[in-house]
Structure formats: structure tokens, C-alpha cells
Amino acid sequence: MMRKLMICRAVLPPRPSGRARLALTVMLVLLTGGNAVAKTLNFDNAPAGMPPDGWTLTKTGQGQPKWTIEADATAPSQPNVLKQSGRATFPVAIKSDTSIGDGFVEVKFKAIAGSEDRAAGIIWRAKDADNYYVVRANALEDNVVLYRTIKGVRTSLEIVGRKGGYGVSAPVASAQWHALRCDFAGNRFKVTYDGKPLFEVEDATITDAGMIGLWTKADSVTLFDDLTYGEVK
User: The whole model's pTM is what?
Assistant: First the structure.
């Protein structure tokens, strides 16, 4: 009897890591929640120096953002990237033809310059340039923080399982490509940075489907590529 028990225990699979469990959870949501159609934009079919079609290129607050397609030899998918090089409170680029309630948005980014800020963010459930969720990575602060923006006012949100604090510390090296992602369903948001799950947030302020987009802050000069998004129905 003891020998049989030892054999049974030997063939048990190892307990998956936290990252593997999150991947399995997301896969189950996609498989059981209905059809999920993902789309990737790499900005390679637009002429350099021009703004991309199908976007509302604007800002939250004041200033003059500048969103343009540019050639970049380091782009994850060459030849082009979307570059923000203007200055505004929060430069915002919203994909006008999107409307996603539950799904995900992910982008690759490279923070180039900025003395006041050096940030890159992704937006979801946007009603307009003044109402949306955003998670951003900051190369000057080396952290990742999730906010809600309502009527132009930005508020950082608490992390599930932790009281207080401000986002999560993470190395955000300038002049290097990184990946930022958020999976959102109901009032639960899961943030992944460079392939590593960072934290989760719960908030029910914005529940309706909305647009996805990109975001920077102040004088940030930031490159974006391979914007991928999808909806789970």
C-alpha cells in the first residue's frame, strides 16, 4: 500500500507558479467567456511624419501634444512606430473605432526623453479624453501605477491586498523597449509588465464599454509599437 501511494504522489504535476496560474486564468476566461478577437496595430502602413488615421489625437488638460508616425530602426516590428513628442498635461491618443467592455490592451513602448516626466501608458474604457482608466510606467520613477481619470482629474487606485502605497516599483529603463498590458473584466484589472504579473486593482467607477488608447505625461518623448487589443464577450 505504501509503495502504491508513493507512485501516485510521484506522478502528480507540480503546482504552477503565480505567473502560470494567471496565464491559465486568462486562457480560461478567453475560452469560456466567448469569442475573443485580437487586433494588432504596428503603424507600418502609414507614411512617416503624418498622424495615424482612425485616432483622436488630443490631451487631458492643457498643452500641445504631437503624435506622429516615425521610422525607427529599433522598432519591434519595423519600420514604423507611433511617437509622442509634444508637451501637454497628459497627451492622449484614442482609437476612435474601438468599444470594449471586458478584454485587454497591450503595447510595446520605449521612453526616450523627458525631464519633468518620462512615461508611457495604455487607456481603456475611455468615454473621451477626460474619462478613462490608464496604467502607466515611468522611467524617472521606476514604477507602474494604475489610475482612473474622471472629468480630467486623475486618481491613483489601491492595489488589491494592500492598503495604501502608490503603484508598484519596477525598473523602467530609458531607451529600451518594454511591454505593458492590462486585462480587464468587470471591476477587476490585472496589470502585466515585461511579461511579469505586477498587481491587480478593483474599481467600479467606469463600467460601460469604451475606447482604448495611448497616453503620456508632460514633456515625455515616447515611442509605441505593436498595440494589441481584444474584447471578451
Answer: 0.84
